[in-house]
Amino acid sequence: MTVLLVVPIAMVISYSLMDSVITSNHSTFVGLENYFEILPEFGHSLSA
Fold it and tell me: What are the residues facing 18 on neighbouring strands?
């Protein structure tokens, strides 16, 4: 039962750190850039 919870959560976390996971077969690692794009005030405060 734990596998049914842990595996999807791990996949979502890894997908969120990649660029173009759904639309491309060759996605690239972008780290937290996706989150900085969605939350600009959060990303701006970390870079300052």
Answer: 29
Q: Which of 5, 36, 44 is nearest to 19 (CA)?
A: 36
Closest CA relative to residue 34, chosen from 46, 16, 10, 48: 16
Q: Convert the pLDDT of each residue in 1-48 to its tens digit.
A: 889 999 999 999 988 889 887 777 888 888 888 888 888 776 555 555
Q: Residue 36: CB partners within 8 Å, gap ≥ 6?
A: 42, 43, 46
For the whole prediction, is pTM greater than 0.90? no
Q: Which of 9, 38, 36 is nearest to 47 (CA)?
A: 36
Q: Which amino acid is at 19?
A: D
